[in-house]
Design goal:
The protein is mainly alpha-helical. The protein has one domain. The chain has helices at residues 3-25, 36-62, 65-68, 76-99, 102-125, 129-136, 138-153, 160-190, 197-227.
Length: 228
Amino acid sequence: FSPGLLVVAGSFAAFRLLNRGLERLVPPPPSARRNRWKWRNIWTSLAHSVLSGGGALAGFYLHPELSKDLVGTHPPGAHSLVAVSVGYFLEDFVDMLCNQKLHQSWELLFHHSVVIVCFGIAVLLHQYVGFALVALLVEINSIFLHLRQILLMANLVHTTCYRLNSIVNLGTYVVFRIATLAWMTRWLFLNRQNVPPATYAVGTVGMAIMTPMNIILFYRLLRSDFLK
């Protein structure tokens, strides 16, 4: 039994409670009241992105050895952060499954399934924690993706705040999402001799799924916020 599973369970419960109480903390504006669950869902996702993205940066700053050994090094704080993220992705998976039609959410459900499996391996084996932390750097961009959705739901598209967020969103998308995924793919390829075949297969399939999904999302953002 891995103590990391307790962190996963605690994280799931904490994000579930946060989701339930968010309407009191951040009441939805009139334009978002028809879709209250989505308003709560996005704010919950934003909370996770701030925690995990900031935590990943702090992890590499406080533990420089992580960047030198992405496989064997697993400081307790970094391991717990990955476990917390597994709990969040499980909570978000359940939330979407209960509140959204499958044809509207299948892409994200598929994405979450891949992340849960990959991060779950790191939590259970106490290996690849550094690699998972690199993946969590993607969440720095997710902060601005979620802010974009919040501004859209609040009907604040034609504002300076939305425009500034769009620029920062696209910039961080390139740096923390596309470049990070490219670096992870390269790392997997260069270290394939040192990674067990099963783990290498999971990682390769994960990268093969994530990369086209993120390129498509980048094009959608570019077309929606700039090309129009």
